Amino acid sequence: MKKFTKKENSWSLYDWGSSAYSITITTAVFPIFYKSSATAAGVDAADSTAYLGYTIAIFTFILAMLGPILGTIADYRGMKKKFFTFFFVLGVTFTAMLAFVPFDNWLLLLICYTLAALGATGANVFYDAFIVDVTTNERMHKVSSRGYSLGYIGSTIPFLVSIIIIVLSQQEIIALSTTNASRIAFFITAVWWLVFSIPLFKNVQQIHFIEREGKPIVQSFKRLGKTFKEIRQYKALFLFLLAYFFYIDGVGTVINMSTAYGTDLGLSATSLLIILFATQVVAAPFALLYGKLAGKFSEKKMLYVGIIVYIIVCTYAFFLETVVDFWILAMLVATSQGGIQALSRSYFGKLIPKENSNEFFGFYNIFGKFAAIMGPLLVALTAQITGKSNYGVFSLVILFIIGFIILSRVPEPKTSPAVDEVGIN
């Protein structure tokens, strides 16, 4: 196998930096910080979990609406990097702002979290679309899997530093409150994300594009409408998006709600942080393994494996009671979390026309984000109705089953002999 090129490495390194946001803000430190803030303000545990679910649903809905529109405009020459930069700056700025929000203002925390999440997930739409500009169809599953693997490895470094600071503050070994230790974690995350994004800005450019034309916004809406009408004619693409809509819902919900769910089960903040750190460490080699096995067995077969693992995860989550149970669940998630996301990205990248990558990744985003609305809302509503979060988690099994069935009907993508070779120069 050829070595990874400078463009491929620069693209993958963004995952190294941005994944610190995913673990610290989305999954670990922020949810614990927010839950503590809400509890201190007298908010019931089930209600605070529900409010977090509603918040996730709100910002995912906003991005679902904007994704295809912005993606269509971004397909014009030179526009992809501009849109990526806007969302990147938004995400980094409000991640850093979380460090300055008063602890007793849980509502302002959610507002800053929403803006940071809009930036992070918005930047990822265009980051994902850049994969067609840095590599070829034949190498796409390797590059995508490597990105996720580097993300898991890179995210553990600032996360470990943050855990050490928080634990030392809890043990009163350092003269720092746990609240301020968490704030330092937010700031470290923003800086880490910023620094390791520099290679992408320097070395990755938009190669596939559409030439600009008069009234670009009007023309973009026309192209978007045409694509929306014709997308059903792309049988493999349409079926894959439909399957992705269902199975990625469960994946995203498990990621976004896991820490809040663990808190409701009575797990301590320290236990949760250690478990999540171990999850990142284990997930890195498994993401690479998924990429390697995809080259041998095909991406679709490995997606089947990931979906089956998540069905087991949701079933097991229903019976969670102890820290040991949560450890087992976390390790199961670690085996497939990165692999299923990486191979979904590369599989989709093979199905789309390269010059319209932003537009089609906009649709990829809208299917993923609308799915991400459904899962958290389901967990949130069930938690409030029953007073137990595990019923909502278990109900996600049906989404994985539907996704599996639809995916089985997706034809394998054909490798074009005229693949652009820019990624291996």
From TrEMBL:
Segments traversing the membrane: 12-34, 54-76, 83-101, 107-127, 148-169, 181-201, 236-255, 267-290, 302-320, 360-383, 389-407
UniProt KW Transport keyword: yes
GO CC field: plasma membrane
Organism field: Psychrobacillus soli
Location of the protein in the cell: Cell membrane
Lineage: Bacteria, Bacillati, Bacillota, Bacilli, Bacillales
Membrane topology term: Multi-pass membrane protein
Keywords tagged on the record: Membrane, Transmembrane, Transmembrane helix, Transport
Main localization (coarse): membrane
Keyword Plastid: no
GO molecular function, one term: transmembrane transporter activity
Protein name: MFS transporter
Record Gene3D superfamilies: MFS general substrate transporter like domains (1.20.1250.20)
Major facilitator superfamily (MFS) profile domain mapped to chain residues: 236-425
